[in-house]
Amino acid sequence: MLDLKHLRTLVALRDGGTLVEAARRLHLTQSALSHQLKDLEERIGTQLFERKSKPLRFTRAGLEVLQLADSVLPQMRACERNLQKLAAGHSGRLHMAIECHSCFEWLMPAINEFRDHWPDVEIDLSTSFHFDPMPALLRGDIDLVVTSDPEEHPAIHYQPLFRYQSLLAVSRQHTLAQVKQISPQQLMEETLIHYPVQRSKLDVFTRFLDPAGITPAATRETELTLMMVQLVASGRGVACLPSWALHPYLDAQLVTACQLGEGIWPTLYAAVRTDQKDSHFIKDFIAQALETCLRDLPGVTAVEEL
User: Which positions fall inside the HTH lysR-type domain (predicted)?
Assistant: First the structure.
């Protein structure tokens, strides 16, 4: 019965105060405006304003429609502005999930810098402890995944961020503390502390222990890097962590580190949907994250794009 044209017409009449001014604001002739108002009143079956009143006075029905217009029209204008920004690549949504659970240290500063440049982009961040992020990325539930385990898929684009070395953290009193390079067999009697994710997502298993057919004596899970380091420092086990995540604890002499075999150097990626990889704000976020990493993280190296 009502459409946006009717709402705009009644608002123009209220704000203009007269039929002449309302017609001017709507770029209509006074006759066309009068016809439009008469058609609207016939549709709803009641009069909307007193035609001979000065100043112009609306009926109860007219005030009801104006109340609707004051609610709907601003929302429509806001939606139109947002659509224009989306078309221009200036706003949108960037919901992220992290498979690299040591990444908060550098990711949060990158997010803060990104917010300064893209205040109209909605940002959200979660870990992937309790869900598989790749199906969520394909469904569109999230928009970017930080991962070190790329799974080839035509709908997913992987942007390399950097390479880093995985090191084994041990307590300073541990017998391995004086060993610079360890073998898989040296972990057979150890408790391995790791993040609560599948072993297939952990480099210490997939790139070090599993190829040698070695299983540690026990495992223990924790979500927090700091808790992991504290457990290691107190002799509760050993843990495999990125060199840049271990760096402050090594400097503080809380733990020491050993190289895993000849060295394990994973690559960290930002995974996005292929149809979103050229989005202006997504490209800018990845660029800012990469700049932040190479500037702030010790021991990481840049890699070429896939």
Answer: 2-59
**Token output for 38:** 């008469």
Q: Which residue has the higher pLDDT, 304 or 240?
A: 240
pLDDT tens sequence across 72-109: 998 988 787 677 667 766 678 899 988 777 777 778 88
Cα 207 from Cα 236, distance rounded (Å): 23
Q: What is the pLDDT of residue 306?
A: 47
**Mean pLDDT confidence for 127-145:** 84
Say which CATH superfamily domain 96-161+269-296 falls into. Answer: Periplasmic binding protein-like II (3.40.190.10)
User: In angstroms, rounded to a whole number, what is the distance separating the alpha carbons of residues 268 and 191?
Assistant: 26
Distance CA 54, CA 41 (A): 20
For the segment 141-159, the average pLDDT, to the nearest whole number, is 92
Residue 248 identity (one-letter amino acid): P
What is the second-level CATH architecture of the domain 4-88?
A: Orthogonal Bundle (1.10)
Region 277-302 average pLDDT:
85
Angle between helices 4-16 and 19-26 (to 10 degrees): 130
Q: Say if CB 145 and CB 95 are below 8 A apart.
A: no
- How confident is the model over 9-31, as pLDDT tens digits? 999 899 888 888 888 888 889 89
Q: What amino acid is encoded at 132 in this protein?
A: D
Of the options 1.10.357.10, 3.40.630.30, 3.65.10.10, 3.40.190.10, the CATH number for the domain spanning 166-264: 3.40.190.10
